[in-house]
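Review form for a predicted model. The reviewer records the input and the model, then writes brief findings.
Reviewer: anonymous (R2)
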Amino acid sequence: MRLRTRLALAFALLALVPLAVVVPTTLTRLRDTLSRELDARMEAATTSAQESLERSAATARRAVEELVDSPAMEDLAREARERPTRAIQAGTAEALMRSRGLSVLALFDRNGTVLSSGHLPARRGDPDPVLFAVTREKSPKPVPVRVDVRTPSGLRQLPALVTARPVDYGDLRLWAVGGVLLDEGLAQHLSRLTQAQVSVVSGDSELARAGAAEPPTVERALPLGEAVTVKLVFSRAAAREAEQGVMRAFLLLAGLGGTFAVLLGLLVSRWMTRPVEALTEGARRVAEGALDAQVAVEASGEVGELVRTFNRMTGELRATTERLVASERIAAWQEVARRLAHEIKNPLTPIRMSLETLLAAQDARHPRFPDMFKESAGVVLEEVDRLRRIVDEFSRFARMPKPQLAPVDLGELAQSVLALYATPPEGIQILPALQTGVVAKVDRDQLTQVLVNLVKNAEEAMKDKGGALRVRVKGTDADAIIEVEDSGPGIPPEHRARIFEPYFTTKDGGTGLGLAIAARILQEHGGKLDVGGEPGQGARFSVVLPRAEGLAHFRQSNP
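Model under review:
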């Protein structure tokens, strides 16, 4: 990851970490605050609903008491005593009920027979044991009961808060049982009062409902005896919406803060890392060979000093390298000229001697001149061939062609090279150990030249005493390796440092270019040629190349 990217991420983290620490704590406190507020509101609303029910019960109780104490009720009782069959009619209770603001009213005789019913006129003359049972309550407070009422949809049982009071006139006793229904009207009133969903429940049946509560909800119950319960359902949606709104605000803040931090981090990191990136690019150019690369960037402090030092270093490096290269080039060509002159000088001596002998024989008109000419011509031709070989090897070393790379199975290539040595010299045994599937991208002809040269050198090292010539092909995860090992005299340690130099040789008649050419071929392939083995126990040359894809893929792409 680039330094600029790391700095930008660091700025973003610096902006987001405080939010990540603050947001959970703030949300927890907000949730607790909203929960306490909702609990307080529900408690207040429940108290208000309870008080409203108590006020309704008290109003009903007062209305019944006022009705019992009213002159109208006294007149009705007197007439009922004097004319029992005509005083109390079917609609009597209904008129009294409406005048007092009641929704339930029934007039009973002392035996529990309904004389008149305001909420259900059809009940006249029949007993109503459920409603008449209220007359036996000792408490003056209204009690909840279920009464039959007439509704547009038919006869229904609804809960009501009712109370009973006796009406005495002489020896006549009537009972007035009245109160208020716990119906839709009461539910709507409580819903408006509490801002909650209100349900009137009796047992498992919901008798009335008003209002609505969006989930999630919290429920409170107001039991009115065993028969009726008023349920208040409060919504937590507002609290959740507030919590989510705060969360969205924090997320928006975090997003804006993170974006701003990233942009600021990119700008600052770009300003901070520009000299470092310029130095990195300059170092890369130097590594690629542009030794005079300069970093043209303004910087201050330690980085500025580093830039100036780098520019001075590359300037000096260019000059020093040019001097060094020139010196090495001169030294190399001097060595090549010396070696080449030495190699050419050796054949010139026998050529000159042969020609001088022929000239002397011709001047002396020697009788064996034809035989001497034939013998000297053979020597001259042999030395000329030697000169030609020297020149050819020098030309081949100086103008090495660019390798044409292609996937090659090194085991198969080594097998084809060893086939040229099917009948090795007497006393030499070739022992191959060739692993299959070891593939490298090489120039087949050039690598064949390398292997032929190594095998030939191994045979020549064992021509006097014989021995075993081992050729191995093996691979690692990264490298493809060919080893050529002989059991000859080996290479002395003092020669190993120069074994791959041009024109360095320990063999009589050798040019010293074979291993130098092999090492250069492998260098052009991105590989290397290593030498090993213990002196006196043989030499081991290792061809190390970058390994390519597996043999299976190579065979598929080269059927």
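Findings: Residues 480 and 547 are 5 Å apart (CA to CA).
Further findings: Confidence is low (pLDDT under 50) at residues 551-559.
Recommendation: see findings above.
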